[in-house]
Design brief:
This protein has 86 residues and is mainly α. 42% of the residues lie in helices and 0% in strands. It has one domain (1-86). The protein binds zinc ion.
Length: 86
C-alpha cells in the first residue's frame, strides 16, 4: 500500500498532513493549508489527486480469468445488448 506523501518532497507522512515538517519549516508554510501560497496549493492538489487515485484503485482482471457468464456480462456492459450471437 502506498503511504501519504509530502506534496513537496514526496517523503512518507501521516495521512492528515499535506507537507512534512521539514518542508513546512523550510518553506515557512502556515499550519492551515488554506493560507498556503499558490505554488504549494498546486502541489497539494496533485497530491490530493494521487491519494484519491490510490484510494480508488481500479482492479484490473484479465478477461481470460472470467467465466463464460461473467464474460458475457462484461460484453454487454462494454458493447451493450442487442447482439444476436449465442
Ligand atoms: Zn516534505
Amino acid at each position: 500500500m502506498t503511504h501519504a506523501q509530502c506534496c513537496i518532497c514526496g517523503t512518507n507522512i501521516t495521512e492528515r498532513f499535506w507537507a512534512c515538517e521539514a518542508c513546512e519549516r523550510g518553506y515557512n508554510l502556515p499550519r492551515s493549508y488554506a493560507e498556503w501560497p499558490e505554488w504549494a496549493k498546486l502541489l497539494q492538489r496533485d497530491e490530493a489527486t494521487r491519494r484519491r487515485r490510490r484510494d480508488h484503485e481500479i482492479q484490473v482482471i484479465p478477461i481470460s480469468l472470467l467465466n463464460r457468464a461473467e464474460a458475457a456480462q462484461v460484453d454487454r456492459l462494454l458493447y451493450g445488448d442487442g447482439d444476436d450471437d449465442d
